[in-house]
Write a structure and sequence with these properties.
Blueprint: H1 2-26, H2 30-33
Length: 41
């Protein structure tokens, strides 16, 4: 039972960490993602 609870806690921590990483570093607004020096799509 203890190993199941440890696994659940670790899964939650990994999910929260991934959410912070994706939200802060990977996702960009569409204006930044699809713009170049000459044009904006």
């Amino acid at each position: 039972m203890k190993s199941v609870l440890t696994g659940i806690v670790l899964a939650v921590l990994i999910a929260v960490g991934a959410a912070f990483i994706l939200d802060g570093m990977v996702q960009r607004p569409v204006q930044d993602s699809f713009s170049t020096q000459g044009t904006r799509l």
